[in-house]
Amino acid sequence: MLFKTNNAPKQEELHNFTMQTINNHYDIKLNIFAINWEYNNYNLVVAGDGALWIRAMASWLGCYYILDKYHAYSYLWKSFVNVRGKHQKKAFDWTKYIDVTTTFSNGNYNGLITILENNHNKVTKKTYNYFKNNEQGIINQNADWNIGCSAESDVYHFLKSLTNGAKIYHYQTLNNMLIAKANYLNT
User: Fold this and answer.
1) Which of 46, 99, 169, 187 is within CB 3.0–4.6 Å of 174 for a Cys-Cys bond?
2) Are 93 and 87 in contact (CB under 8 A)?
3) What is the C-alpha to C-alpha distance for residues 58 and 15, in angstroms, rounded to an integer?
4) How far apart are CA 41 and CA 36, in angstroms?
5) Residue 60: exposed, middle, or buried by beta-carbon count in 10 A (0-12, 13-18, 19+)?
6) In whole angstroms, what is the distance from residue 131 CA to residue 124 CA?
7) CA distance 126 to 131
8) How far apart are CA 101 and CA 78, in angstroms?
């Protein structure tokens, strides 16, 4: 979904829109897994970048939530390898970076928070709070049903191919381009 920043919907409006879209446009019969593939243990999963509205959407839909590794690793990279600003002299701690990313990937929330607390001289408050507030998304990292999330990179590459790498478009122009491409893909 593409919104103007000054006209973005509220959480409840976004939830209602999503539920209405799902109900009106998708024939969701979850038991089709059990019927066609004898698969009886299925779950709905929402992956996100840690934004509150995404976590709230997962909760409202009764889904599992996973934290997108791209965003998590980006925060960890900035803290342990590519540190900027007042922490710059303490940068390039590859051992800690590998340790903290492994702990994250294993879904060890308490271990991750402990590592971040023990490295408060490298980890910003923003980074610490990002992980502290995404407990469920971290715990679900090593779940057997977690196949990851590539939506953001897919959207980025799609937009880059559509716009030939241009960075600036008027909202209406970009929206029209996306609609035209969607119409082309759906014909």
Assistant:
1) 169
2) no
3) 10
4) 13
5) middle
6) 11
7) 9
8) 12
Handedness of CA 141, 96, 80, 130 (dihedral sign): positive
Strand-pair partners of 164? none
Distances (CA, A) of 147 to 14, 45, 47, 142, 165: 25, 10, 10, 9, 29
Buried-state track 115-124, b at ≥16 Cβ within 10 A, e below 16: bbeebeebbb
pLDDT digits (tens, 9 = 90+) for 8-21: 667 677 777 777 77
At 187, the amino acid letter reads: T
> What are the tens digits of pLDDT across the range 29-86?
555 555 665 555 556 788 888 888 888 878 877 788 999 888 899 899 888 887 665 5
